[in-house]
Amino acid sequence: MTRVIGSELLKLRTTRTFWALAGSAVGLVLLIVVLTLSLDDHLDTEQDVTDLLSTAGLSGLLTLVLGTVVGAGEYRHGTIASTLLVTPNRLRAVAAQVIACLLGGLAIALTAVAIAMVVALPWLSAKGAPIPSAGELARDLIGGVGYAGLAAALGAALGALLRNQVAAVVSLLVLIFVVDPVIAGLLEDVAPFTLTGLGAAMSGASGDDGTDLLAPGVAALVWACYASLLAVLAAISTSRRDI
Q1: How many alpha carbons fall within 13 Å on the CB side of residue 105?
Q2: What is the pTM of this model?
Q3: Do residues 201 and 213 lie in contact, with contact meaning Cβ atoms separated by under 8 Å?
Q4: pLDDT value at position 60?
């Protein structure tokens, strides 16, 4: 299994899509942090600072897209045939791709978090903003990194299931920006289990409109269950189709 994952990581880091989305994720986080620090003079509480630093979790949105593009890209470019010749076990092949995207997402988020911390902490200190304790910062930032990695894994599983890059990316965007807000507005008890609610819980952001969020560890477990379920469905779907 280690060799299969290594092969998927090699494919991942030798594609322009990975580096383009990685650069976009890091650049987006840096831009938001700098603009917020430059324009917002009301970072008066530790929660305000936590919300700013949790911006690094936004990289999870792009790693989600990255995983989707990678998972469906095997079918678009026809490389799935050679992949399954080397690894005939469909579940193993899908799992290796999902794990590779998980690791890639973690690497992107770690870079984004490191840059956000290097830029934000000295700036916040100079502005006299209250800095949360090291333990709280570590918890929230680790959660944000985990969110980005799990987002990439879920995206890869969904892409492998749908097999069409456009359909998979559009489905994700509709789910996050249309379905999730509707569910949050109509079913408050279900809102914490949406992708948006889980992402906010893991990255340490405060809930909008007083929404209660799950504990970060529980949110990560739920997200991992979603990704695992999609991966199993993708493997079953692939095993029943001719490649």
Answers
A1: 35
A2: 0.84
A3: yes
A4: 83
